Amino acid sequence: MDATGQKAFQLAFILAPDGGGCSPTWGGTSPISSDSTIPSVISTIRGKGGDVSVSVGGYGGTKLGQTCGTVAATAAAYQQVVDKYGLHAIDFDLEEPEYENTAAIANELGAAQTLQRDNPGLYVSVTIPGTSAGTGWFGTQLLDQAHSIGFTPNNFSIMPFDGGFSGASAQVAALEAFHGLLTSHMGWDSTTAYQHEGVSMMNGRTDAAEYFYQSDFQTVLDYATSHGLARYTYWSVNRDRQCNPPNNNGQLSGACSSVPQSDWDFTKYTAKFAGVAVPPPPPTSSTPTTTPSTTPSTSPSTTPTGGSCTAAAWSSTTAYNGGAVVSYNGHAWTAKWWTQGDVPGANSQNVWQDDGVCGPSTTPPPGTCTLPVWSASTAYSGGAVVQYGSPAHKWTAKWWTQGDTPGSNSQNVWTDGGVC
């Protein structure tokens, strides 16, 4: 986090117990009910302005969708994970051997839909294998199952590696093919499909002896940002360092990438995707210095504790990074970590710090807008609505954005709804 500005981390994997049953465990061996290790990890990340998603499933192992028997039982098992860690995001990584099990996939998708319904604001992603056609036959069956039950996750992500891929051009082609599958199988228009599409890559040498370099990550990043994809991630930060020797004698490692690199080269691309500025490297001098900043390039403004609020009004549809400042019920509030949908003052996780009374929210510019005023420091999800300009216009975000001024962004992030 200090070296790259990265704020979001995914913890993997939640599985069924190795001996069978319907209770969630880490890796099939460590019950979450007695876990005392991961909470401290999450607390550290949140304390530095970040947050986590927990991934369930993965390649190999026995999945809860296979052992729990019903949608309700599967959802109840995953709800334990959400409650244990106070999650704001969860990922369903649906792979072998569950991937080919129709009943298990029905349990998983039904459980994901249940969690989404029962936990307002929970970010739900679904990750599946990628092929040159976007995804394979079982992947299209999975999309059809989701469509049939009316389940719309925040995104479907493919993993374009370990399938005969050669460089970023093959990955981009797969993502474009998958976009076509999302339109045909989910019934979405092109823009909606992009807004619900994501990519999960692998850095350096893959299991199938493919090689992906920093330039490949940049190419895929350019595609993801220019098309408004919802997610850009990779496996894994544990490997984001150089082996010794750099090529690891042509071997795969879980602790390094097997390609030439500096520490955290690949993580810097995910930080860029999130709109976070990469801090400069620390000085080489032996003189003690302060820790590099990990805040976004546009820092949240300071809100006074008395008088009129100058911060934008809190919105349940906006995703806020740690440090974001809002006004709500006449008080100023500062987000301790990433949050969306958590009402200031009413969340059991104490996401928002109450900075005290500051009077009514900022008076809107000329016009009749009652919408939150756009803020460069706020991260907005697709569909978020703000006011900006004088006279004030209504602007709707097409996809995730932060720091992109309405009306002036080359990617056309914001749709102008006209003077209000």
How are the elements arranged and paired?
Elements: E1 8-15, E2 25-26, E3 30-31, H1 38-47, E4 51-58, H2 64-67, H3 71-85, E5 89-94, H4 102-118, E6 123-129, H5 137-148, E7 155-159, H6 167-186, H7 190-195, E8 197-202, E9 204-205, E10 211-212, H8 214-226, E11 231-235, H9 267-273, E12 318-319, E13 325-328, E14 331-335, E15 352-357, E16 379-380, E17 385-388, E18 393-397, E19 414-419
Helix pairs in contact: 3-4, 5-6, 6-8, 8-9
* Superfamily (CATH H level) name of the largest domain: Glycosidases
Quaternary assembly: single chain
The residue fraction in helices comes out at 10-25%
| SS field, number of helical segments | 9
Q: Spans of 5+ residues with little confidence (pLDDT < 50)?
A: 277-307, 360-366
Strand content: 15-25%
Count of beta strands:
19
Q: Could you give the order of strands across the largest sheet?
A: 3-2-1-4-5-6-7-8-11
CATH architecture level-2 label of the largest domain? Alpha-Beta Barrel
Question: Helix/strand-derived class?
Answer: alpha/beta
Q: How many domains make up the coordinates?
A: 2
CATH fold-level topology of the largest domain: TIM Barrel
The geometry reads as globular
**Major sheet characteristics:** 9 strands, mixed
Structure commentary:
Keywords: Hydrolase. It is built from nine helices and 19 strands. It is α/β, with parallel strands linked by helices and 420 residues long. It has two domains: 8-273, TIM Barrel, CATH 3.20.20.80; 296-420, no CATH class. A nine-stranded mixed β-sheet has the order 3-2-1-4-5-6-7-8-11. A three-stranded antiparallel β-sheet has the order 13-14-15, with no helix packed on it. Strand 5, helix 4 and strand 6 form a beta-alpha-beta unit. The protein is globular. It starts with 7 loop residues before the first strand and ends with a strand.
